[in-house]
Fold this sequence. Notes:
- By secondary structure, the protein is of the alpha+beta class.
- The chain has 3 domains: 2-206, Histidine kinase-like ATPase, C-terminal domain (Heat Shock Protein 90, 2-Layer Sandwich); 263-424, Ribosomal Protein S5, domain 2 (2-Layer Sandwich), CATH 3.30.230.80; 427-690, Heat shock protein 90, C-terminal domain (Four Helix Bundle (Hemerythrin (Met), subunit A), Up-down Bundle).
- It is built from 20 helices and 25 strands.
- The strands form 6 sheets. Strands 1-8-7-6-9-4-3-10 form an 8-stranded mixed β-sheet, with helices on one face. The chain has a 5-stranded mixed β-sheet with strand order 13-14-17-15-16, with helices on both faces.
- Strand 20 (490-495), helix 14 and strand 21 form a beta-alpha-beta unit.
- The model is unreliable at 10-21, 109-119, 217-230, 361-365, 448-455, 457-462, 467-474 and 616-625 (pLDDT under 50).
Amino acid sequence: MKNGNLSINSENIFPVIKKWLYSDHDIFVRELISNGCDAVTKLKKLSLMGEFDEPDEPYRIDVTTSANDKTITFTDNGIGMTEEEVEKYINQIAFSGAEAFLEQYKDKATEEQIIGHFGLGFYSAFMVADKVTIETKSYKDGEDAVYWECEDGLEYSMKKCIKADRGTTITLYLNEDSYEFANEYRIKEVIDKYCSFMPVEIYYTNADEPQEDPKDATVDVDAKEVSDTADNAEDSKGPDADDTKTEEKKPEAPKPLNTTTPLWAKHPNDCTDEEYKEFYRKVFHDYKEPLFWIHLNMDYPFNLKGILYFPKINMEYESIEGTIKLYNNQVFIADNIKEVIPEFLLLLKGVIDCPDLPLNVSRSALQNDGFVKKIAEYITKKVADKLAGMCKTDKEEYDKYWDDISPFIKFGCLKDDKFCEKMNDYILFKNLDGKYLTLPECLEIKPQDEEENKENAVDENGNKVEAEVVEDKAEDEASEENTEEEKKEKIIYYVTDEQQQSQYINMFKAAKMDAVILTHNIDQPFISQLEQKNEGIKFQRIDADVTDALKSKTSKKAEKEMEEQAESISKLMKKALKNDKITIKVEKLKNKKISSMITLSEESRRMQDMMKMYSMPGMDMSAFGGEGETLILNANHPLVQYITEHQDGENAEMICEQLYDLAKLQHAPLSADAMTKFVARSNDIMMLLTK
């Protein structure tokens, strides 16, 4: 027997012994099973290189627990270890056997990757065990089996032993705080978490349950009916008796706990839609079908495989919780590692397997280096290419998905400039007719020719709208020049609340103008980014201003008259509303059924939204409420004409208040006090009609 102290062969490795290496104590299961996979993989490589004859029995890893004995046993039939190798790889901490093996055979054929990197995985056993033993026998002929034992993580004993089969058996004698891992359901849960897709079949046995010998596992289903008087029973058979009554029932063969060939390891052409859906249900326990998926399969300049699913969602983007499972050679590493997975893709569900990832000593985190960033960039590019391809080749399906995937895409554009550039022309906007348009298509939409508008314009009730005749041609030509100058900045109009802004929508439709619908919380910062990325493009809410397309053309003389009217009415309105800060304009709108409306400049509204977003509790927001707000009075409406002509009338102020509240209602909800006054005033107005 040989005794000694463990040799630490790496700097700052003492925390390993102190059990501080891993954040999750169940990680030892992954590490020890990974070591078993490495042992099998090494043997397979030797077989491929002709240095070992492939055995008849299948490769496997067995996990056995005993709640009575408080033990867990991990057994593999892989390469095994000699006494020298135990001395080198077990007694010298952080000397990786996998690394040494790869170095030795780096110039020979390699068909599979080896999981291990740093040689520390075995010592994760001391996180949960007071005592650990190893029984191992090398594949090499003539080598003795070795027994190794360590009780405190520092001092060990080693001797020769008798072991018939090739491979390694590791037994953990659990400490008091870790008895839970000897429970069948708990250990299966951990294996499912970390080892569901490891490349070697994993089997589980509960040592406390009586085990049936497969050789003796055949039974006569009717044996209990057989008596000592077999001859009498034979005589009692009728002519129609079934001679095959006593059938042998064979027990089901044990099934592995894992799938050795996960779907992401296959070529996309070899996978069916149903397989993708079944994999999604199994891994993420989500029984709603995903919208679509992206199969990642790259061999150069790094090895990366995976599947990303776009789930169907019905919630705000802030509440979406995605899951990207990260694997290294089919070994689960962690969920949602930001250094590898672009932040916006963390909202998706999927798996990514990259054997080339630079793992730290615990395999529980990733180094933030240039290589990892390249992986993230590749994933981003593949997602952008997939979405752009769908938009180009299957626009109809892309339209169907858009409402569900738009939060992902917009969030991605906000977080990643390169992704934004790639997706710029493939972002969709739904217009007033429910049609989905790309950004270039939105920019092509222009108000119809003015002459056509004069002929075809209708109001919200479908009645034809007549435009006022222009009195001064020269002045109109100058006005057209100014209009052309304004058109240099391309404006995309949008709606944030179809119900609240219905009046403005009707005006737009009547003028044969279009707007896009942007109702999501993410839309406001998103359009600001698009404006920054696309010079000459401006987004403007439809209630931000009254465009020329909604107005009747007027001469300079008519405009001067309206300015004078506005000045006089403004005094009356400010007096009636008791508000000296309000801005009032008089315009001739094409739709004569509209009496008044409120506009709020795009800049002021965005400022107000920002102030509300970042305001502290108790901040008085009333100071920002009226800036940029304008009351538009339609000079073509009889009520406006009435108060213009009867400013000293008995009911003039009441009509002014009503016009303002009606306009306000079309723009935003009234305050509680304003609504109370509006209802009371409406009743008074109706009473006037009864007199």
